[in-house]
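Lecture 7 notes: from sequence to structure.

We start with a single chain of 196 residues. Read the sequence below before looking at the structure.
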Amino acid sequence: EITEGDWSSDVCSSDLAVSAFLGFGLAMDALAVSIAIVVCTPFHLSAAPVMRVSGTFGLFQALMPLAGWVFAGKALSVPNGAGQWIAFGLLVFVGGKMIYEGVKPREGCLFTGDPTRGLPLVLLAIGTSLDALAAGVGFAPLGLAPLFTSTVIGVLTFAIVAVGMSLANRIGRRTGGRAAVMGGLILIAIGVKVLF
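Now the structure, written as tokens:
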């Protein structure tokens, strides 16, 4: 059950920092895809498509961790002392997957239509937020307030994707892969922090 305390009126600076780093790391996957959208789209992207993509990605990145947290609360019974190891394992898995996606060779552009609207955009948003779903399972072991942390993740994703798409022609597609690697390393670092 979601309580008022989940907004954590007494969220300490440590919780805010962990939430921000978690949000930054998870947003890198969305950033990599959004850069690819700009590079591969044959027409000029105005402010409206950028807002659609960043808004949709931010919304899914905020909702998916909540879904993971609800699932974990209803379906998992975690023995004392095992929570930290579960959070560590999930974050290392997600971080490792992001690093792999960031370093593997990229094929040509896969977008044949307009990926900034309709079903293609929703599918891209789901694909880039599945890692956030897994991260939400680790909210309880990490001691994070779910609603607060999910909001931070969503807002950071929105801002990072909007800025990334605006600068995509300058920073290039390779930067998206490096961003995914950096995000993966951040998530692994948070997982290691949980153990200590």
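The radius of gyration is 17 Å. Keep this in mind for problem set 3.
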